[in-house]
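Attaching the record inline, Q. Sequence:
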Amino acid sequence: MAWQGIYDHDAVAERFRRAAKRGHFAGSYLFVGVSGIGKRHFALALAKGFLCKNNSEDEINPCGECASCKLFGSPETDHFATVPFLSPHPDIFYVCKPEDKKDLPLDLITGEKGKQGQSGLLYKISRSPLMGNGKVAIIDDADTFNQEGANALLKTLEEPPDDSVIILIGISAAKQLPTIRSRCQIIRFAPLAPKTLARLLEKNGIVDSLEQGITLSRQAQGLDQARDLFNEHLDKIRAPLFKSIGSPNIDSVALAGILKNFLDDSVKDKKEASIRRRLIRIVFNQAIDYFRGDIKKAVAETTDVQNSKAAVRMLSYRIEHTLDALEHVDRNTQLELVIDVWSQNVAKSSGE
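Structure, as predicted:
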């Protein structure tokens, strides 16, 4: 089954259906799970059901025919397909991080400077619903909240306006400030099943056949990961990357050049920052896997215990530096700087 055309999340839909029948809808939710598995589509479908004018109070399925539903479109087409989500519906409010920003801008939440309390998401959701059923606010890219933006939202999350639902969408609950997590009911979305992902990859034209999709789905958990992995440049970078980081004396400048050239070759437009970050995450994780493989080899080669321990120590430092680099990628630190620092750190780790 696929609730509202959204695959592999029927268990989550059933959870909301039971809550609706009990009349226990929470005011604030935090949707978490890997990117590209349908969290945003689910939030929009839920909002559509919540605002449907023909819906009973104990159901979450939209009728698809009323004036409210028609303003949404369908889960697979129309407004649902656009990012950011665009709809003329007057009682749904959607915000997400612009591509050229590191954080979700405060003015999207509180209103533009000089117009706080007169514009922005908090102002919009505080007003009476124009179509009578309620209001829904969806905050995408919630992982990119800065402290100021999160603080501005806290009171509304704790006490949402009557007849309103607020949905935050992120990748991990751990990325949210504790004050955000404590005020939301956390809904965890599982990765897509390999067969489901394979079908979606073929449907979206990412792969040429279902068989190719099945092969790719074994390495990915969602559409975004699969798109990144299905990249000819990832195949080309493995050999030079592993050769460089496998050297006992790493050339940091050459290593940084390999990664920067890879990004430039893979993503021509530097404004596609989110894609560049996803790709460099894959490369760093491949480096970690490589270092861990070398640790296993070093441990297995126990004829020279002292040298084996030294090799394990060096490789462990390189893994730590790579994990630090991944953390900075998630913090939206400038990628060129992350690459330079990582390359220098793994190069000098042999002397630590």
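The longest strand covers residues 164-170. DSSP finds 15 helices and seven strands in the chain.

More tomorrow.
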